[in-house]
Amino acid sequence: MSELTVRAEKLDAADELAAVRGEFVLDEVVYLDGNSLGALPAAVPGRVDDVVRRQWGSLRIRSWDESGWWTAPERIGDRIAPLVGAAAGQIVVGDSTSVNVFKALVGAVRLARLARDGRDEIVVDATTFPTDGYIAESAARLTGCTLRPVTPGQVPGVLSDRTAAVLLNHVDYRTGRLHDLPSLTAAVHAVGAVSVWDLCHSAGALPVGLDRHGVDLAVGCTYKYLNGGPGSPAYLYVRRDLQDRFDSPLPGWNSHAEPFGMRPDYEPAPGALRGRVGTPDILSMLALEAALDVWDGVPIEAVRAKSLALTDFFLECVEEYVPAGLVESLTPVAHEERGSQVALRCADAGDVMKRLIERGVVGDFRHPDVLRFGFTPLYVSFADVERAARVLGQTLGS
Amino acid sequence: MSELTVRAEKLDAADELAAVRGEFVLDEVVYLDGNSLGALPAAVPGRVDDVVRRQWGSLRIRSWDESGWWTAPERIGDRIAPLVGAAAGQIVVGDSTSVNVFKALVGAVRLARLARDGRDEIVVDATTFPTDGYIAESAARLTGCTLRPVTPGQVPGVLSDRTAAVLLNHVDYRTGRLHDLPSLTAAVHAVGAVSVWDLCHSAGALPVGLDRHGVDLAVGCTYKYLNGGPGSPAYLYVRRDLQDRFDSPLPGWNSHAEPFGMRPDYEPAPGALRGRVGTPDILSMLALEAALDVWDGVPIEAVRAKSLALTDFFLECVEEYVPAGLVESLTPVAHEERGSQVALRCADAGDVMKRLIERGVVGDFRHPDVLRFGFTPLYVSFADVERAARVLGQTLGS
Which of A221, A256, A262 has the CB atom closest to B366's CB atom? Predict the structure, then answer.
């Protein structure tokens, strides 16, 4: 037994989240792609079967009331809220992340202009997951704004009284860099602009503190660290004091004050509900609700502590097992700048990832030269980490 | 046995679609709310369980390729295509109807302006399901258009060279009136405007003929006559020759020509794919795919013939069983103006529907005074129809 294997054993023995792993369906694979698609929580299949057979198959239309389908978007939003530091009543679940980015950005521009007309710039993280940039461009075009793509570090320098909205990622999807949400939000507010944060790569992996840091609007997906399943619905956070001014570009009937009044004139619902649009996709949404059960009694601070311990240990194991010079970490060493993944630059990364997967270590490849490993603290063990680094070393050394 | 009971038996015996009923999970209830939420096809629970346990739980991230998740939106679109008279490659599934109305309407205005700049009116069916009107208002606001809500009959009279786009419902959700898609589309084209049809209440109930009638853009939900399940994803049709000019207001990464290139610049995919937005909700989408199996070998013309026979027979039974003057049909008598539902105006309709449901006849109530009965030809029998009218007569007569 190597020293690192022994260390892994000790770390797993001391892991206060170790028992949560039992709530997931896992196998002999080391699954480090939970930042793309979370593993299946064991409670989900039974719940989905009940939704399909009993709620749909037997109760049919009555389930909109009797099975709580109609209120699922806000009910499940309230389950996500504590994980991102939000009080209840500020999050609704539904639609894809892209669609929510659109609602949030157009809504943000409108909020900013309520306070001061003439604001005509949207600042966006140039290193963002591409969909955010594409949607930001569309939002800019439809609201008569100019799009300014800059790196997050450049954001404070380009803010001005022309800035309407700023769209930023909490964690960079490629490098795993964690951006400074409190100070960037404060900088956005200092010029009177509205902040929109994309939490796809941070929610469920680390404390976000939406309320505490005064974030205006936020969106995120639920199929990564929240384990909601493939394409499970995303969510939209609208801070409570902004809700009565939030003016959605997608005012579907589900966001109406009286949705069954079937009135030809639109009157937005109070509260977070005005972030809803059309009929919610119930199967995906209730699978997500079941998946969120794994969080009962799990403090997000404990998740963060384990996440950092996992990525620290992975970097240490890589240092030990991988011959020098073959990989270079793109992920910051400083804890305050690190999300819950490690990105390694590596020659022939696409081919290397294929070989890793063949050997039972699943991460993913990001064009052109990045091996990306995500560490979901709820089910990744230190033994997994040691094995992944060891197999990587063997693969690159052979 | 009454004469109508005997007639129902004979009609059921001669029904060439009678066997399809066996492919649904049904019980002793007469379910006439399939125009709100279709009944559960028997193939769905097993398929969904496989998607959850094997595709997600075991294959995990590999399923995006190996289980065909990535291509589901266009693959399932091609399954819907023949039901609405479209050749393959013109429909993608995903998002809610409301979101698709938004894509289609903004896209329609842009298409119309490509041909002639300055068009600044969107004409919308004033009697539409409300969400279409709300979204049309938002699309008008964001594209600098004026919204003109008129009844479908008034549409030809208000069209002009200022008209950019016209949003119409194929079948009115409240009255069940079928609008004349071919002639209204031709009138829209005569002024150089772009037509958007909402097929929510016609797809799966009658032939639509999108290609044949030169419709430009169309949207529809899949949880009514297509039985896709609660909140199953909607679809967008973009006629083939318009696809390379279709300019979506929601250009998410799923509609990129090279989605995994992660390029900061947006380049739309060729074909119908550019109607996609974000990550598709796989559980809801693959439940829909399984639900569509019931259509194998079922010609939509046979469905239409049975639909008309069912609604004719229902009107006849109502005439026989319901004391004169207690209900008034809002649904046109002429076949060419009738969808697959019957709407009866009735005093205390909300209370009457509650009592019908207690007696095992499920329709729905539309504010303020409408009893709405939907007839899904795939699983509603003539015996169901006779019983529903008989129970209605007993309820109103008591």
Answer: A262
- Tell me the chain A residues in contact with residue B54 when contact means C-beta distances shorter than 8 Å: none
Model confidence pLDDT, tens digit, residues A259-277: 988 888 999 999 999 999 9
pLDDT in tens, A2-52: 899 999 999 999 999 999 999 999 999 999 999 999 999 999 999 999 999
Q: Which two tokens stand for residue A323?
A: 């011959």
Residue B228 DSSP code: -
Q: Do the Cβ atoms of B99 and A99 come within 8 Å?
A: yes
Task: Say what the pLDDT of residue B153 is.
Answer: 93
Q: Where are the domains of chain B?
A: 3-17+298-397, 48-295
Q: Which of B224, B306, B338, B390 does the annotation list as catalytic?
A: B224
In this prediction, residue B206 has a pLDDT band, given cuts at 50, 70 and 90, of: very high
- Alpha-carbon Rg for chain A, nearest whole angstrom, is 22
Q: What percent of chain A is predicted at pLDDT more than 90? A: 95
Whether B398 shows a pLDDT value over 80: the answer reads no
CA-based nearest residue in chain A for residue B249: A138
Cβ B230–A277 below 8 Å, yes or no? Answer: no
Q: How many CB atoms lie within 10 A of CB B147?
A: 17
Higher pLDDT, B239 or A368: B239
Instruction: Indicate the DSSP class of residue B64.
Output: H
* pLDDT tens digits for range B118-150: 999 999 998 888 889 999 999 999 999 999 999
Cβ of B99 within 8 Å of Cβ of A233? The answer is: no
Continuous H helices in chain B: 3-13, 44-50, 63-66, 72-80, 97-115, 130-143, 155-158, 181-190, 282-291, 300-321, 349-358, 382-397
User: Token pair for residue A65?
Assistant: 């009331």
Q: What is the pLDDT of residues A326-363, one digit of tens each?
A: 999 999 999 999 999 999 999 999 999 999 999 999 99
Could you tell me the CATH superfamily of domain B3-17+298-397?
Aspartate Aminotransferase, domain 1 (3.90.1150.10)
For residues B278 and A138, the answer to whether their CB atoms sit within 8 Å is no
Task: Kindly determine whether residue A143 and residue B142, on different chains, have CB atoms separated by under 8 Å.
Answer: yes
Sign of the dihedral through C-alpha B197, B202, A60, B91: negative
Reported as type and span, the H/E element at residue B133 is: helix B130-143
pLDDT grade, residue B392 (50/70/90)?
very high
Contact with chain A for residue B289, Cβ under 8 A: no
Instruction: Please tell us whether the domain made up of B48-295 is placed in CATH 3.30.470.20.
Output: no
Token pair recorded at residue A205: 């992996």
**What's CA A22's distance to the chain center, in Å?**
23
Of the candidates A193, A200, A233, A231, the one whose C-alpha atom is nearest the C-alpha of residue A218 is A200
Pairing of the two strands A194-198 and A163-169: parallel
Listed by number, the residues of chain B in 180-209 with a beta carbon closer than 8 Å to a beta carbon of chain A are none
Chain A, window 109-138: residues with a beta carbon less than 8 angstroms from a chain B beta carbon: 126, 129-131, 133-135, 137-138
* Fold (topology level) of A49-295: Aspartate Aminotransferase; domain 2 (3.40.640)
Report the complex ipTM. 0.97
| Minimal Cβ distance to B31: which of A60, A126, A143 | A60
- Per CB-CB distance under 8 Å, the chain B contacts of A374 are none
